[in-house]
């Protein structure tokens, strides 16, 4: 466990994302905002980094398969002291190393993602490895609902269930949107929970912005004695926390200007 | 050659319990020995190559040494992006074995034939490309791939064409191996994989003074050695059971053109798929890679005396 409890306050994390998105004049704000509470709960209460070392042997693994949400993870890594403030004010400056998508050369990011459907399989490999070693390590793969259009996710799901990887949990950020529109309109997924259940996972669906509910669901899944891998389907809102961004897919692509930045900051400061 | 591969893999796995074999449901009889000797190190990942490579990356991250086996048409070609992003980008020690490269599956058609794999893998940073010609080279390549602790694609082509060396001291990665010494400054032959045998046959009968070099290491290669070979001859013939675009012939021509320009005939697949099926020998002939066709091309290429 982390030695010092940290807040991982959702408002503060969203503010950090807005600050860096504005500093870097970058996109993908909506994808980061849908996973803020999920990451807050994981980092606060579940992920174990011995000595607060992002590269510690025996650590748990958080694989951000939906690399587009990486700003939310950067915000958490800042709270852990793994990233310096300059990395945020200088986001996207020439020669800087925090990219717009997850790059595993940054300690704390476990995979290089952004091309979708990769991290899930890497996570299954990590879980298989921990299981072969008999190590008490847990692996979380955070995927987008759009991302699970990708075939390798389902190849990996078959493998995880066949090999009884009950140290593996996929968390689906079900925000209902992908790059070009609603997931239901682009390539309908039906019930994500039922799909994972039919692949042999033990699955729950929660409100992905209710931290208590997320925490309870993760605990319930791990406490289950079953040998099945776990799936947590988190119903989320793309752009959550800023009303003019919520469920508005243009914020997958739009950059903040001074006016939208100020409005977003005040919305985040006032949001519950 | 396949026995040498299997023996090398079993030896490595017995010596290091972190060695794992992942297969995409291929290698039915090939892995009998491995499954018997090291059952806990054997993972059949199913017919799911993309996931298999991603998992290999995860296993390598947590300290294992995965050897990922598939047919060359699938590993590496089907999974080029997983190799690039999940493995090579982070310099993870995963060895990819692409079996049946070239026209081994001569009756099965394009899906199982693999003549683009070297071109696909050569351009990926941090990834080495090995292409052994006989059992000695396979053994050396397996050993070096393991020792290198980095990402390697090992291409296995037609495996029953006999040895090209009578013995082999452990080579260095990148070294071109002299399969036949030569004194002739007119032409030397450079070949890889199954076509080293062809180059040797042609040299010994028609160009007895020409050297034949086998190239088990397409990347990295000792370019100084290539330059020295280029400087000693007026012309080179490069043989590969692979496209002339992006493979060994391209690699030699790239080095030669920068440092030691020399005329080069690239013998290989001329940017086309197979139209017909038949024996391996028939397919080579369809692609102009049988002995008679190659000899004709060499005669046309070399200036008449």
What would your notes on this structure say?
The complex is a heterodimer of chains A (272) and B (305). Chain A has 272 residues and is of the alpha/beta class. Helices cover 40% and strands 12% of the residues of chain A. Chain B is an alpha/beta fold. Chain B has a seven-stranded mixed β-sheet, with helices on both faces. In chain B, strands 7-9-8-11-12 form a five-stranded mixed β-sheet, with helices on both faces. Chains A and B meet through α6 and α7 of A and α3 and α4 of B.
CATH architecture of chain A: 3-Layer(aba) Sandwich
Give me the secondary-structure category of chain A. alpha/beta
Mean pLDDT of chain B: 97
Extract low-pLDDT stretches of chain A. Answer: none
The computed structural class of chain B is alpha/beta
Helix content of chain B: 25-40%
| Radius of gyration of chain B, CA atoms, in whole angstroms | 19 Å
What's the number of structural domains of chain A? 1
Number of helical stretches of at least 4 residues of chain B: 11
Query: Which fold name corresponds to the CATH topology of the largest domain in chain B?
Result: Rossmann fold
Average pLDDT of chain A: 95
Q: What's the CATH topology label of chain A?
A: Rossmann fold
**Assembly type of the shown chains?**
heterodimer
CATH secondary-structure class of the largest domain in chain B: Alpha Beta
Number of strands of chain B: 12
CATH architecture annotation of the largest domain in chain B? 3-Layer(aba) Sandwich
Spatial sequence of strands, sheet with the most strands of chain A: 1-2-3-7-6
């Amino acid at each position: 466990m982390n030695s010092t409890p940290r807040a991982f306050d959702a408002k503060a994390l969203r503010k950090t994302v807005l600050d860096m998105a504005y500093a870097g004049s970058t996109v993908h704000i909506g994808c980061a905002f849908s996973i803020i509470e999920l990451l807050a709960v994981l980092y606060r209460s579940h992920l174990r980094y011995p000595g607060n070392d992002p590269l510690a042997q025996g650590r748990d693994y958080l694989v951000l398969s939906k690399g587009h949400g990486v700003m939310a993870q950067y915000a958490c890594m800042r709270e852990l002291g793994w990233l310096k403030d300059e990395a945020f004010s200088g986001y996207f400056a020439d020669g800087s190393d925090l990219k717009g998508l997850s790059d595993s050369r940054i300690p704390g990011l476990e995979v290089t993602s952004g091309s979708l459907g990769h991290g899930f399989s890497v996570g299954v490999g990590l879980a298989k490895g921990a299981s072969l070693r008999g190590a008490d390590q847990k692996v979380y793969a955070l995927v987008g609902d759009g991302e699970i259009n990708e075939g390798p996710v389902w190849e990996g799901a078959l493998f995880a269930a066949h090999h009884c990887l009950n140290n593996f949990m996929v968390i689906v950020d079900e925000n209902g949107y992908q790059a070009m529109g609603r997931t239901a309109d682009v390539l309908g997924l039906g019930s994500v929970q039922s799909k994972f259940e039919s692949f042999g996972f033990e699955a729950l669906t929660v409100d992905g912005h209710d931290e208590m509910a997320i925490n309870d669901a993760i605990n319930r899944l791990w406490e289950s004695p079953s040998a099945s891998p776990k799936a947590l389907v988190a119903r989320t809102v793309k752009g959550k926390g800023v009303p003019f961004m919520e469920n508005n897919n243009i914020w997958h692509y739009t950059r903040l200007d001074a006016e939208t930045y100020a409005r977003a900051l005040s919305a985040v400061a006032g949001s519950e | 050659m396949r026995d040498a591969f299997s023996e090398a893999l079993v030896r490595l796995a017995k010596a290091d319990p972190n060695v794992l074999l992942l297969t995409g449901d291929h290698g039915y009889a090939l892995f009998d020995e491995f499954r018997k000797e090291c059952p806990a190190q054997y993972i059949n990942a199913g017919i799911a190559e993309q996931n298999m490579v991603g998992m290999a990356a995860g296993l390598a991250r947590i300290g294992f040494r995965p050897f990922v086996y598939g047919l060359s048409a699938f590993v590496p070609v089907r999974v080029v992006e997983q190799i690039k992003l999940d493995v090579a980008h982070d310099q993870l020690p995963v060895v990819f074995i692409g079996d049946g490269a070239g026209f081994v599956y001569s009756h099965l058609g394009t899906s199982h034939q693999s003549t683009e794999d070297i071109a696909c893998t050569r351009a990926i940073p941090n990834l080495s490309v090995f292409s052994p010609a006989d059992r000695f080279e396979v053994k050396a390549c397996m050993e070096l791939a393991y020792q290198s602790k980095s990402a390697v694609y090992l291409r296995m082509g037609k495996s029953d064409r006999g040895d090209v060396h009578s013995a082999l001291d452990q080579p260095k990665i990148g070294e071109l191996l002299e399969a036949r010494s030569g004194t002739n400054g007119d032409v030397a032959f450079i070949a890889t994989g199954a076509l080293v045998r062809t180059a040797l046959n042609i040299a010994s009968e028609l160009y007895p003074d020409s050297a034949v070099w086998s190239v088990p290491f397409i990347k990295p290669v000792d370019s100084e050695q290539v330059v020295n070979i280029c400087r000693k001859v007026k012309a080179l013939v490069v043989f590969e059971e692979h496209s002339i675009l992006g493979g060994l012939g391209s690699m030699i021509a790239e080095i030669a053109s920068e440092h030691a320009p020399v005329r080069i005939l690239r013998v290989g697949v001329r940017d086309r798929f197979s139209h017909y099926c038949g024996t391996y020998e028939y397919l080579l002939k369809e692609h102009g890679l049988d002995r008679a066709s190659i000899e004709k091309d060499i005669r046309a290429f070399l200036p008449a005396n």
